[in-house]
Design a protein that fits this description.
2 domains; mainly alpha
């Protein structure tokens, strides 16, 4: 709103007004605002949650320090949501299609998580929403994003950047081309995305289509939309599974948010895109403002969520964070980098699937279920001891704070690797 207000008053020559044209400046103030809101408003929200006795229901899984967390306020995702939305509404371009889609999807996933927590806390149903209900809600939003990518005229890419266009951007010292300049360039609807280890860093979903001609056109977009649905739902559930230790999901999501923000800024800047030989996506630089708010909100939330946690984000936060990560990756055409960048979430999800499959298989074959890990999701494996399993390292349980810190370190390593992949051909 402040961004649009200053745009409307640009003829008044207000001091500092020009700074709001720069993505870097708006990202910085978005991050700072989100951080301050999360810290200062967070304390009030936690007090309110305690007053309403909105506490976490804990199942005794035999984990050290687990039952001490009983009654800790949950639904802290409310803090994260407010801390993201306010600075984005203030400093982002609200006419930008990427901003609109992120605002809508963030609110949608927040409501799914809120409904799940509401059922658990107020309806006293530990199961919350059914898995089918959550998947349906996630799938509908993912489908909407897929259709927007497919049909919106504002979501286009510039595959080849002529030298003269780069020269114009450098000479005018702008971070994003304006609407008139974008219209003058040859933008195309495309099913291309970013992939490492190849010369052009590009993969086209049409290569998976068994048809050519008109049928091939429909088929490639159908494949692309199905991939979008898979990525978004997988990310949302992946973060949800990771949210089992103090600070784990929030800290790991913040690391991922930094990388996605960098990718958005680079891909939305014609000069940087040309230099790095990556796909130029007009308008996507605005996503960096959103991701700056996300990272600021998460760092502020960690003030209260690190061990021992004063508040849990609950499904209100975890489903929302995963949704944001998935949607962002899709919009900036980096969804195929998710298994590397979000390796922690990926490993957590895979550990659950492996555990379930192996347990059912061995129970059917040997009459008793056997385990691959001492406990799934993966982070609980390191917190448990005394259970026979295939992967029995470490033998002794590790302190929760150490597990979280090590997962953060692994997340940082994966983030560096993901960024480095931009130059690996």
């Amino acid at each position: 709103m402040i961004y649009h207000l200053l745009e409307a008053l640009k003829n008044l020559d207000i001091p500092g007004q020009g700074l709001f044209h720069y993505l870097s400046f708006r990202a910085i103030i978005s991050f700072t605002t989100a951080l301050l809101i999360s810290i200062f408003a967070g304390r009030r929200i936690i007090t309110w949650l305690q007053t309403k006795q909105i506490g976490e229901t804990i199942r005794d899984l035999g984990l050290e320090g687990q039952m001490q967390k009983k009654g800790t306020p949950t639904m802290g995702g409310i803090i994260i949501y407010i801390s993201i939305i306010v600075p984005v509404l203030l400093f982002a371009d609200l006419t930008n299609i990427y901003t609109i889609l992120l605002l809508v999807s963030t609110t949608w996933f927040f409501l799914i998580g809120f409904a799940d927590d509401y059922i658990k806390v107020f309806k006293k149903n530990k199961e919350g929403m059914s898995e089918k209900g959550k998947l349906m809600g996630q799938g509908l939003m993912a489908l909407a994003i897929g259709l927007a990518v497919c049909f919106s005229d504002q979501i286009v890419v510039r595959e080849d950047i002529p030298a003269e266009d780069t020269a114009v951007a450098i000479s005018e010292s702008v971070e994003n081309l304006n609407a008139a300049e974008m219209e003058s360039m040859d933008m195309v609807k495309s099913t291309k995305t970013t992939i490492p280890f190849v010369k052009s860093h590009e993969f086209d979903y049409k290569w998976l289509s068994p048809f050519k001609g008109a049928w091939g056109w429909y088929c490639k977009w159908a494949i692309y939309v199905l991939m979008i649905i898979l990525v978004i739902t997988a990310c949302s559930n992946g973060v949800n599974l990771t949210d089992g230790m103090d600070g784990l999901a929030a800290g790991t999501s913040a690391i991922v948010g930094v990388v996605l923000g960098i990718f958005a800024w680079l891909g939305g800047n014609i000069v940087n895109a040309d230099y790095l030989n990556i796909m130029y996506i007009p308008g996507s630089g605005e996503v960096a403002v959103f991701m700056a708010a996300l990272v600021g909100a998460l760092i502020g939330f960690l003030w209260y969520n690190t061990y021992p946690a004063q508040v849990f984000m609950g499904d209100t936060g975890s489903l929302m964070l995963g949704g944001i990560i998935g949607v962002t990756a899709v919009l900036i055409r980096k969804e195929l980098l998710i298994p590397v960048l979000c390796g922690i979430f990926f490993a957590e999800s895979v550990s659950v699937l492996m555990q379930r499959f192996y347990f059912k298989y061995t129970k059917k074959r040997y009459g008793e279920g056997r385990r691959i890990f001492k406990m799934a999701p993966l982070h609980h494996h390191y917190q448990k001891e005394g259970i026979p399993c295939l992967f029995n390292k470490p033998a002794k349980a590790l302190p929760e704070a150490k597990i979280v810190t090590r997962f953060w370190i692994v997340g940082m390593i994966l983030a560096v690797i993901t960024i480095a992949l931009l130059k690996v051909r």
